[in-house]
Amino acid sequence: MYTSIETLLVEIPTIRPHKMAVATMQTQTLVLVKITTDDGFTGWGEATTIGGLGYGEESPESIKTNIDTYFKPLLKTLSGLNVAQTMAALKRSINGNRFAKCAIQTALLDIEAQRLNIPLSELLGGRLRDSVPVLWVLASGDTEKDIAEAQKMIALKRHNFFKLKIGSRAVEADVEHVLAIKQALGKDVSIRVDVNRAWSELEAIKGIRLLQDGGVDLIEQPCAIDNIDAMQRLTQKFDIAIMADESLMGPQTAYRLAKRNSASVFAVKVAQSGGLLEGRDVATVAQLAGIDLYGGTMLEGAVGTIASAHLFSTFQNLAYGTELFGPLLLTEEILKTPLQYQDFALQVPNTPGLGIQLDEDKIDRLRRK
Ligand code: MUC
Ligand code: MG
């Protein structure tokens, strides 16, 4: 029986403006969900969006409102069900709302793993690795600043591969920016770009050709979400990896993209998938179709980031690593012990559940009142 379901909006400034084709972020709003049970367990879940409604269909405010108005009363009526049965009951009455469902499901899985006294990764099938490689996203908007930031990350042994956010300038200007960074960092440092669907197919052909020749390793979501025909043609035309991100909205779209050969890599995001279990299904579709995997982020804070790390630790093929750097982009720590980033990777906790302890006084100070 669930005794309380609390939804908090926690506002945290970023360490610098994070410039993307869809929005420039100066702050991130974490939607934290805290669920307690009558047998004494507390589980946490999280959802974030990027730039309010700039990136997708849900906003932090809509997630909170929908959880408080629709999920919470329903959850209070449910008892004696496992996580799958609880989620099935919610889905019978609530359409869409993948991010809200993800936050709730994460908290329920956190509780269940604690009850079983196992790390969340083991409830999700079992980890294959104790840490996941993590890249850094260069998105200051300034070439020289990005180069200095990358060099600092390499020296700190924090990150040794990078993703660049492009798509807000003309194709030629973006290519010049990316190749200047690639040249400065050298041939052994993997550089990928995320266009966030800003290009038409013709712009993509021009941009991808130049970036491929310049030694870039991967192009993320070059074209519009629904334009999977263009994604298919680009995947076929170029040797460079083409990755689907925004086009992936759960197992069903994963199946459609795989069937149409519309990507060579999938960015698995737990919120975009609709939950950790659905994220696992997306990965299974990819694996069966011979599509490589990358562990994506919606720039979550510590809760969503470590939940994703538990899932990604179970993937057989994590060929392109992960981008689970969200908490490092934020100026405030909300855990009693910060997540462990070392040797270019994020450690996956070994303690029960998510394996983190939240600093609730700090969260209370940061939450929107
Ligand atoms: C995206 O589209 O990949 C993930 C990392 C980052 O900097 O932005 C997000 C969104
Ligand atoms: Mg992306």
Descriptive notes:
This protein is of the alpha/beta class and 369 residues long. The chain folds into 2 domains: 2-118 and 360-366, Enolase-like, domain 1 (2-Layer Sandwich), CATH 3.30.390.10; 123-347, TIM Barrel (Alpha-Beta Barrel), CATH 3.20.20. It has 13 helices and 13 strands. The chain has helices spanning 60-77, 83-93, 98-115, 120-123, 143-155, 171-185, 201-213, 228-237, 251-259, 270-273, 276-289, 302-312, 360-366, and strands at 2-19, 24-37, 42-47, 131-133, 136-138, 162-165, 191-194, 218-220, 241-244, 265-268, 292-295, 341-342, 345-347. Strand 5 (136-138), helix 5 (143-155) and strand 6 form a beta-alpha-beta unit. Helix 6 (171-185) runs parallel beside helix 7 and helix 9 runs parallel beside helix 11 (276-289). It is globular, with a radius of gyration of 20 Å. The mean pLDDT is 98. Residues 194, 196, 220-221, 245, 267 line the site of magnesium ion (MG). The site of [(2S)-5-oxo-2,5-dihydrofuran-2-yl]acetic acid has 12 residues, from loops.
Provide the CATH architecture of the largest domain.
Answer: Alpha-Beta Barrel
Q: Would you identify the CATH H-level superfamily of the largest domain?
A: Enolase-like C-terminal domain
pLDDT under 50 segments (min length 5)?
Answer: none
Provide the structure class: alpha/beta
Give the distinct bound molecules: [(2S)-5-oxo-2,5-dihydrofuran-2-yl]acetic acid, magnesium ion
> What is the CATH T-level topology of the largest domain?
TIM Barrel
C-alpha Rg (nearest Å): 20 Å
The total tally of domains equals 2
Distance between the termini: 28 Å
Summed over residues and divided by their number, the pLDDT gives a mean of 98
